[in-house]
Amino acid sequence: MSKYQDRYRVESARRPGWDYRWPGMYFVTIVTAARTPWFGSVRDGVVELSAQGTIVAECWAAIPSLRANVTIDAWVVMPDHFHGIVIIHDDPVETPQWGVSTLA
Predict the structure, then answer these.
(1) Which mean pLDDT values do the consecutive 10-residue runs of the chain (104 residues) have?
(2) Nearby residues of 67 by Cβ (< 8 Å), 6 or more positions away
């Protein structure tokens, strides 16, 4: 582990030289601050989503309808984190509201 501003930190798992906008399958993990269980709780071995957890699930599920070149694979919302697989296809990217285009 290295230090940043005199504090230990986990090294980046990012691949050097890789552009994460490139087509591929990406495993995404998002963890809440201090691992606070904002997204729900576990009761009898089953995750019960909170309002915030439901929003996470709805937003993740909506990704393919927002980006034509992106699909999602397996995903799960846990009380204090989220895991999902996102697939970026080799299609043109069009997000006119942000002025982004890969069309020539």
Answers:
(1) 74 84 92 96 97 98 92 98 94 61 58
(2) 93, 95
